[in-house]
Amino acid sequence: MLKRLSIAVVGGLLLATTVAGCGGNGDDAGSGSGGGGDDKITLGFSQVGAESGWRTANTKSIQESAAAAGIDLKFSDAQGKQENQIKAIRSFITQRVDVIAFSPVVESGWGTVLKEAKDAGIPVILTDRAIDDPDTSLYKSFIGSDFVEEGKKAGQWLVKEYEGKNDPVNIVELQGTPGAAPANDRKAGFADVIKAESKFKVVASQTGQFTRTDGKAVMETFLKSQPKIDVLYAHNDDMGLGAIEAIEAAGKKPGKDIKIITVDAVKDGMTALSEGKINFIVECSPLLGPQLMDLVKKVNDGQTIPQRVLTEETTFTPEKAKEVLADRKY
Ligand code: AHR
């Protein structure tokens, strides 16, 4: 951020003190990256929190990529609270950062603060999670996964796994944070695929807040309340890993007595998959940093950037996990 302080003292009087703000959204000379040596782009980033292995890897990717790109990163951890994210965004606006990026804790309730950023001429990039506001002019781009597609991939694996079998399949579901895009979309995508066959029944579905602790606690209650559980679908690896502890404590074998599908493919999840404790993982990549920094530079230069940047992802079986585990970076 470029700050120029001009002080003119005439006849012992302080006449003028001017602080010129940073370059903004291409509507102000320099657009934040031309000129003096300290004229770095400043990015204000509001992160969801540190709820999962995925999130930790995502934070690392953003911090390392900003440093590598020479971008001055103002990083704020919202600790899972939307109100903290709104405060952070308002503070970035006051500080006149060049670009704001954030991963929204929940989908709704962003209109007012994003309008404030727009009015201040500061471009916003959504990272990892979408918002449900129909006004797409509130942000320049959304970079991240297709969570509905992830849920569908989980459902498609299940359909194939039980192909030709007619007995009822009782499924329990550990949902992510209520109101978060990955929780809403992974649930919807999965339900959309399995509804084609009446043998699939979601007998219990509850939030595990994307954390290992809550995943374990909720799975314990499922095991007590449900007489027969065939499958666990967890919206992320961490909840699945917590649930594995509960299943083992109940004297059952995860991956055999109860089949397990998760999303993310972080190292701990992939290790459990390679050991046969998880049966299938849908990948969701947290390594969004390099692409985000590229978009930040472009938008700061006044270039038009794509409204949607989709992350490329795959799926993993235990065999495939064994092949790639040693090289897994996160
Ligand atoms: O938004 C991405 C999701 O958030 C990840 O799948 C989950 O692990 C994280 O907490």
Word description of this protein:
- The chain is an alpha/beta fold and 330 residues long.
- 37% of the residues lie in helices and 22% in strands.
- It has helices at residues 53-69, 82-94, 111-119, 147-161, 181-194, 212-225, 237-249, 267-274, 289-300, 318-324, and strands at residues 4-10, 13-20, 42-47, 72-77, 99-102, 124-127, 141-144, 169-175, 200-207, 231-234, 259-264, 280-283, 308-310, 315-316.
- The strands form three sheets. Strands 4-3-5-6-7-13 form a six-stranded parallel β-sheet, sandwiched between helices.
- Strand 10 (231-234), helix 7 (237-249) and strand 11 (259-264) form a beta-alpha-beta unit.
- Helix 4 (147-161) runs parallel beside helix 5 (181-194), helix 6 (212-225) packs across helix 7 (237-249) and helix 8 crosses helix 10.
- The protein is elongated, with a radius of gyration of 23 Å.
- The protein starts with a strand and ends in a 6-residue tail after the last helix.
- The model is unreliable at 2-37 (pLDDT under 50).
- Alpha-L-arabinofuranose (AHR) binds next to helix 1 and strand 11.
Describe the secondary structure blueprint for this structure.
Layout: E1 4-10, E2 13-20, E3 42-47, H1 53-69, E4 72-77, H2 82-94, E5 99-102, H3 111-119, E6 124-127, E7 141-144, H4 147-161, E8 169-175, H5 181-194, E9 200-207, H6 212-225, E10 231-234, H7 237-249, E11 259-264, H8 267-274, E12 280-283, H9 289-300, E13 308-310, E14 315-316, H10 318-324
Parallel strand pairs: 3-4, 3-5, 5-6, 6-7, 7-13, 8-9, 8-10, 10-11, 11-12
Antiparallel strand pairs: 1-2, 12-14
Helix pairs in contact: 1-9, 2-3, 4-5, 6-7, 8-10
Alpha-L-arabinofuranose binds next to helix 1 and strand 11.
